[in-house]
Amino acid sequence: MRVLIPALAALSLLVAGAPAVAQSWIGDTGGEVGVTTDNRSKFASKSGGDPAAFAGVYALTPDGAWYVEGEAETIRDSSGSDAELTFAAGWRPQVIGFDLDLAAARKVRLGARPGADTEAWEFTADAERAIGPFEGRLRLQQSPDGAGSTGAWVYYEARLRWDVAPRWTLDAQVGTRDYEDDADDYSGASLGAVYAVTDNLEFDLRLIDTDRAGEDDEPALVVSLIAGF
User: Fold this and answer.
1) What is the pLDDT of residues 113-126, one digit of tens each?
2) Which residues are paired to 171 by β-bridges?
3) For residues 222 and 38, is the Cβ–Cβ distance under 8 A?
4) Strands, DSSP E only, in 65-217?
5) What's residue 3's pLDDT?
6) CA dihedral sign, ordered 90, 93, 99, 100
7) Per-residue model confidence (pLDDT) at position 148
8) What three-state secondary structure class fits 196?
9) pLDDT of 115
C-alpha cells in the first residue's frame, strides 16, 4: 500500500493547496482500496496466482466528462517487480446513444532488476449502452510496446452486465489478446457476481478461464473485497 501514498498526497495537495483552481475544474473525487486472491488483468494473472492488494484515486471535472486517476497494485513478474503504478487521463463523451470512455495510461513497474523494461503506454476505448435490463460494453485496448519482453499488442473484449437485485450484479466477459511479435495470442472468459455489502463495500466473486500458455488449465475462482471512499 505504500506505493499509493504519493498519489494520494498529490491529489490532496492539489485540492487543498489550490482551491481557486480546484473550484473551477475539479468536481467529484474519490477512490478505492481492495484485496484479491489473484491479481487478474485481461484474464491472466499478474501476481503469479498469489493474493494481491490494490488502491486508486480519481478526480473528475464538474461535468464528469474528463478525469484523471492513479492506481497502485501489487504484482509479481519475471523482472522481479513487485508493484505497478498506473497514471491515466480520459474523456467520457456520449455519441449516438453510446457512453464512450477514451483513455491513455502510463504504467510503471517498481522493484525490477536494473536494466529491465518497466514502463509502457496503454490506450483504451470503451463503448457502453443499456440494452433493456442489461448493460453492454465493447472494449479495445492497444499498447505500442508493453513492459518487459512484451511487444505491441491489441486486446478486444465484450462484457454484458445485469443488475439482478438491488445489491446483486452479474456479468460475463469474453476477450482475446493479439501480440504483434512471436508471443502466443490467447483468449479468456469470466463469469462474475458482485454483492454490495454497503454503499461503499463490494464483494466480488469471479470464475475466470483462459487458454494463455503457462496458466492453469482449470478455471480459477477469484475473490475480491473492494472498499470505496
Assistant:
1) 888 888 999 999 99
2) 161, 192
3) yes
4) 66-74, 83-91, 94-95, 98-110, 119-131, 134-143, 153-165, 168-179, 186-198, 201-210
5) 46
6) negative
7) 67
8) strand
9) 82
**What's residue 11's pLDDT?**
46
Strand partners, 177: 155, 186
Inform me whether the pLDDT recorded for 20 exceeds 80.
Answer: no
Reported pTM: 0.86
Between CA 100 and CA 108, with CA 106 as vertex, the angle to 5 degrees is: 145
Q: Which three cell numbers stand for residue 65?
A: 466528462
CB 126 within 8 A of CB 96: no
What the block records as the C-alpha cell of 22 is 480546484
Tell me the fold of 2-228: Porin (2.40.160)
Do the Cβ atoms of 54 and 34 come closer than 8 Å?
Answer: yes
* First vs last C-alpha separation in the chain: 15
Buried b (16+ CB within 10 A) or exposed e, 142-174: ebeebbeeeeebebebebebeeeeeeebebebe
pLDDT band at 46 (very low <50, low <70, confident <90, very high): very high
Q: What is the pLDDT of residue 13?
A: 47
Helix, coil or strand: residue 3: helix
- Does residue 214 surpass a pLDDT of 50? yes
Quote helix, strand, coil % in the chain, to nearest 5. 10, 60, 30
